[in-house]
Amino acid sequence: MTLTTDSGTSLGLVDSYTGGTEHAATSRIYASEGRRITRRTQDPRYQRDLTEALRLYERVLGGNRRAALDFQESMSRSDFQFLFGDVIDRQLLAFYNTMPVNWDITARRGRVRDFRTVKRFTLDGGRGVLSEVGELAPYKARAVVDGAYEYSVKKYGAEIPISWETVVNDDLDALSDLPSTLGLAARRTEERFATALYASSSGPNSTFFSNAHKNVINPTVGGAGVTVTNPALSVSALQVAMQIMGQQVDSDGGPIYVQSVVLEVPPALEVVANNIVNSTEILSASGGGDGTGNDQLRVQNWMRNRVTVRVNPWLPLIDTTTGNSAWYLFASPSSGRPAMEVGFLIGHETPELWMKSPDAVRVGGGPVAPEEGDFEHDGIRYRVRHVLGGTPMDHKMAIASTGTSS
User: Fold this and answer.
1) What confidence category does residue 266 fall into, taking pLDDT thresholds of 50, 70 and 90?
2) How does DSSP assign 226-260, residue by residue?
3) Residue 258 lies inside a defined structural domain of this protein
4) Are residues 65 and 102 in the same domain?
5) Is the pLDDT of residue 76 over 70?
6) For residue 12, is it within any domain?
């Protein structure tokens, strides 16, 4: 005979205690309901009691009134609550989903040798258009200017201590995910650190984004095409941002070629950003039309091939003032000089997970597993270490708007 659980799993049972089918039945329960409950199911007495309870429960489902009364009475006396708690109530919920680490589409990934301050040097000048040289005339000398960006990496980490008793009681194997939990914390640290390089609690980093750097959107910087300071994200606002970035020049007054850009937005602007970038056509008055239908242009959305949307959920958590409206435009880090760099210690470029080795020795010898805990307190400790640092770099490779239209 069979018993079907709420999840639709059929459980094979027998009328006598042969062992094999009973074990298969309970194994199916634990394979389909939450996490596998390992320690308790290895107890033969527990297997026997659970099989008896399942038989009674099957008769209840089959319409047996006497079985229903017996089952109700048993549950009210808590006889079966211990057994059926594993099947009905005890489930370990999964972690929240988290976004993949993708800050490196807006920042350069660097590598450093130690904890001392590192420098990233630049060399500007000498790339201007050549001057005409007359016959027997001297060549005109031109200067080159060096610069540098500095930062150092720091150590980040955390520890989770648990007791041996907790491990023994962990019949849901919940604690087996502790290393993954610490690894996720390290990845989140990367994302938050990278975001904090250009976003602050009051909006875009005012030292990096400013009128002096010509990387904010306002009538002074944007020119005649801008009518509002810090416009909300729209097709026209994104067009102005692209124009501002395209008008940036190097120290010799030459153009800076940016072939692809990343539009970074908070979750509140995800729909707007994707609608702009993924639309098939744009109605435009640019090029002669008056915007009212007379000579209006219907153009293919050229931004689909140049703009990548990145939704950053850390923006509203860091920027508590304009985090739901501010948006950013970054040149791809591969477009020459990056807007910023996040660096990692060579040889330690990914999160490192540790478990404390036991300092106890069994009487008579024999290895001691880490899950047994230390000698003094039976304590078990997990630890994560991550080393990183970074800095904003070339302000010409980024544009920002608070989106507040002010």
Assistant:
1) very high
2) --SSSPPS-HHHHHHHHHHHHT-B-TTS-B-----
3) yes
4) no
5) no
6) yes
